[in-house]
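> run fold U three protein 23
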Amino acid sequence: MRLKRSKDYKRYMNMYCQTFHFRKPFQVLVDADFIQAALDQRIDLRTQIPKVLCDASKQMVSPCTMALLKSRGEDASGAFLASKRFEKRRCKHQTAVDEAICLGQIIGNSNPHNYVVASQSKKLRSQFGQIPGVPLLYINRSNLILEPPSDASMNKSKSIETAKTHASTRELQTLKAVKVTGAGKVSVDTGLVKKLEKKQESKKEKRELLKAKILKKRMGPKEPNPLSVKKKKVVATPKPAPKATPAPSSTEGDESTEKKKTRRSKKSKAGKASTEAGNESSS
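> ok
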């Protein structure tokens, strides 16, 4: 790689790191045509991509691109085997869909996971060029090329830089309290300054209350693990005792004994009469 080109690439990646918070190792999302072109040109992507990005990188492939390479048959068998060496990037599709749809859903509207897209499709590169913060790679003959940042990326970086240099809303409010007379004297409106201070204090108090609530939830007493706690023994409820029958009174007891005696006496008398009658008949 030429020295000038390597300097340009380094400047591009520094811009992505500073404004869009790219981290090392860079994640490179590779499509099917890019893998096939690298195989045709005999480019080792695991060694050449880190040279172009000027730092460590890891190549990633979605299951939809692997399914596309597999569906091409024997012509793309080498590219399919090469894609197996890369790290897999999961997608939401249970069945394989079009590669452009899959990559578009992964990148989204703002490239939240900071992917570098390596694609041979001009249509796909122009689509991702409209999204700020998406570095683009492609192969031209036997050279691996990093495209310069798109207009969307440059406009976004400029807006971020201007926001850093310009005064914030808080600073503008404090400037309103300062008054300059025609003689060049500077006077400060104390009433406005006090109001601003009160607003800031109230905001700080609200933030502290929210933090205290969050800490209470996190640092509060934790419940024991239900698997480590012994189960409570189920205590059998005692059955109600049967109602005690009232004991018979003394008078009732006497009456019952008298009745029993009378019954026995009657039976004994009847037995004697029957024995006497038998004796008479025998005589």
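The chain has eleven helices and eight strands.
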